[in-house]
């Protein structure tokens, strides 16, 4: 069941989203060659707590960290640890803030120092794909119109869209209905309506869209070892179109 949100609930999500956006902005200056992914996780946890937000990922289904740090061929759910970022890496940092019972979720990909043209193209296309999806997230359209817009654009740029990991409704639960696919035909599934809140979070690969899972049961990688990037915003649907809750 899709749960629409009240203005009060959306306002709380907006407050959480602002802190998430501020944290991502701060990470842009913090991330550099020589730091460990667990340093990034500590930065995220400290930032959220200082701003009176709960790091909602920590403890979710047993996940032990406040963020996911996904480097190079890792698509999503990468464990923070002792890996030291190298010049030319790309890293996606995903975090969820919980504020008075409401969630806001955003992932962002970062270049570590100077990166290759291939990696730069991947980041540009993935970010553009997110906003292609947001453009069609308007009341009256179908949820599947989002995925169709994303897939059409990404494949026109010679890249591929991950199938297994998708966007989702969000609110009092981190994951709610509807499922938001980033691929597929248009004009399918539920219609978008005012008060819906959900994420759009395309994961885009340089090679195949196929994935593999590490033995930890969380870390998802590209099946061919190619690079992967992700950008994610939490949205609220209004009479005036989609409002991005996780940007400054």
TrEMBL record:
InterPro entries: Creatinase/aminopeptidase-like (IPR036005), Pept_M24 (IPR000994), Pept_M24_MAP (IPR001714), Pept_M24A_MAP1 (IPR002467). One of its GO terms (molecular function) is initiator methionyl aminopeptidase activity. A divalent metal cation 1 binds at residues 94, 105, 232. It catalyses: Release of N-terminal amino acids, preferentially methionine, from peptides and arylamides. Keywords: Aminopeptidase, Hydrolase, Metal-binding, Protease. One of its GO terms (cellular component) is cytosol. Binds 2 divalent metal cations per subunit. Has a high-affinity and a low affinity metal-binding site. The true nature of the physiological cofactor is under debate. The enzyme is active with cobalt, zinc, manganese or divalent iron ions. Most likely, methionine aminopeptidases function as mononuclear Fe(2+)-metalloproteases under physiological conditions, and the catalytically relevant metal-binding site has been assigned to the histidine-containing high-affinity site. Its cofactor is Co(2+); Zn(2+); Mn(2+); Fe(2+). A divalent metal cation 2 binds at residues 105, 168, 201, 232. SUPFAM superfamilies: Creatinase/aminopeptidase (SSF55920). It is an enzyme of class 3 (hydrolase). Pfam families: Peptidase_M24. CDD domains: MetAP1. Removes the N-terminal methionine from nascent proteins. The N-terminal methionine is often cleaved when the second residue in the primary sequence is small and uncharged (Met-Ala-, Cys, Gly, Pro, Ser, Thr, or Val). Requires deformylation of the N(alpha)-formylated initiator methionine before it can be hydrolyzed. Monomer. Belongs to the peptidase M24A family. Methionine aminopeptidase type 1 subfamily. This is Methionine aminopeptidase.
